[in-house]
């Protein structure tokens, strides 16, 4: 693991069912990628190989469009570790989930 990414998809619709359906489609896609991830109430955190994570980030807007999204914002935070020395998702949150 040499990177972690936080991604937030914000569909811009008043219809909550449509919002949830689009976010669900993105999460279903992330699940198929095989990377370690953690879903939070505002964003989803992923960790793994930097190049693989960037492929996922690139696909997310396409997934939202395929799910019927015509207007959404996608926010991404990237933490890159050139020497594989970063904190994992578990390092960051395990003590808060016990």
Automatic annotation (TrEMBL):
Species this protein is from: Schleiferilactobacillus shenzhenensis LY-73
Entry-linked InterPro entries: MTH1187/YkoF-like, Thiamine_BP, UPF0045_domain
Provide the protein name: Thiamine-binding protein domain-containing protein
Name a single GO cellular component.
cytosol
Q: Which residues form the Thiamine-binding protein domain?
A: 5-96
Q: Which family does it belong to?
A: Belongs to the UPF0045 family.
Q: Name the domain of life.
A: Bacteria
């Amino acid at each position: 693991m040499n990177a972690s990414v936080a991604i937030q998809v914000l569909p811009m619709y008043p219809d909550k069912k449509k919002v949830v359906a689009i976010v669900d489609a993105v999460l279903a896609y992330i699940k198929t990628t095989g990377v370690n991830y953690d879903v939070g109430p505002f964003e989803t955190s992923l960790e793994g190989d930097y190049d693989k994570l960037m492929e996922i980030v690139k696909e997310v807007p396409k997934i939202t469009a395929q799910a019927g999204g015509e207007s959404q914002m996608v926010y991404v935070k990237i933490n890159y570790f050139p020497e594989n020395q970063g904190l994992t998702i578990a390092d960051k949150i395990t003590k808060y989930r016990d």
